[in-house]
Amino acid sequence: MGQNILITGAAGYIGGSIVADFISRTAGPIKAANISAAVRSEEQSQSLSKLGVNVVKVDLSDETAVMEVIVSNKIDIVIHTASSMDSRLASHLIKGLGRNREISGKETYFIHSSVTTLFAPEVGWEDGEVRDTDPLFEKEKEMGDQNPVRKTNLLVVELAQTLGVTSINIALPFVYGRGSGQWKKLSANIPAHIRSGIAHKVVYKFDKDGNPPTAHISDLVALYGLLTERILQGTPIPSGKDGYYFAIAHTVGWWEIMDGLAKALYARGLVEEPKTPFWPSDEVAADYLGFPRMFLRAMGTTSGQLVPVNAYRLGWQPKWDKERFLKNIDDEVQAVLDLDKTKVKTTVFDSLLSGEK
């Protein structure tokens, strides 16, 4: 009998793309698994039900409801993409897995989705090279849980260990590309700049350049699939305190991205010139982009010297690199023009830190 997988944020950009990938499998351990998709609204439920997947409408902030979903569906693996900001959601899911482990006697796994910006100097991390094989948990513990995303990271490791659940933390970089999910197909950062450029006839850039870690959505989904396959096959993989995975395919300069967007939009007659002046102020940038002021710099100028090791040791092979991304940057513009017509939107910041919006 196949194992049971629950994907949260299944109506979101990342979670929806994972669902689409998993149910498209024609062979292998994921094909043999039973896939459940967690959503929040009836509209989302009806949309995803067309895929033939087991759709679960649940409020992840309701611990009793989450426990019921996990136990009644005998969930062995949770892939959590719904939120890295609210530690309650991760707590409820892990407690449910712990309870199911007690009942079934089977191992249970929690794959958490965090962000790489936690390990950048802009949010207090020390300068210098950071590998995902470094003692990241110990350093995060030392820094404390004032940052809500870091608080969730710490909770995931500690609570999962207490309850005998195996935890894995995928640190998400700046993600681009058109998603393949049923509901939300756009990421957060690039679409925000495209919308701002179209609305104000100019593409701005910050006065500080950066070189953010990035990945195409298809490569990111492939990593989730690879990790899930290893779990289903019973292959030992780094987990718990050692289970951080930087999902980084390549890096690219922020100014290169903005210059590429300006040229693509200018070629379509959507901005007045193919140049990228600096933002007049951070306040204007926050207003135009929809980013909270406190996270603005981290979202628009971050660099960091992050080195992914664990994913590549497992055999992850991203297909997108910097050159391919910049060469096809007009695809990002086309995606916004196509998909904004669907009116499936949320705030940019919620989209970045929450898969189920």
Q: Give me the Rg, rounded.
A: 20 Å
Helix content: 40-55%
Mean pLDDT: 92
CATH topology of the largest domain: Rossmann fold
Structural class: alpha/beta
What is the CATH architecture assignment of the largest domain?
3-Layer(aba) Sandwich
CATH superfamily of the largest domain: NAD(P)-binding Rossmann-like Domain
CATH class of the largest domain: Alpha Beta
The main sheet comes to: 7 strands, parallel
Strand coverage percent: 5-15%
SSE order: EHHEHEHEHEEHHEEHEHEEHHHEHHHH
Strand order of the largest sheet: 3-2-1-4-5-7-10
Give the terminus-to-terminus CA distance. 33 Å
| Low-confidence parts | 343-357
Any idea what the shape is? globular
Quaternary:
single chain
What's the number of extended β-strand segments? Answer: 12
Helix count from the secondary structure assignment:
16
Q: What count of structural domains?
A: 2
Protein name: NAD(P)-binding protein
GO molecular function: aldehyde dehydrogenase (NAD+) activity
Domain NAD-dependent epimerase/dehydratase: 5-83
GO cellular component, one term: cytoplasm
Short description:
The protein is an alpha/beta fold.
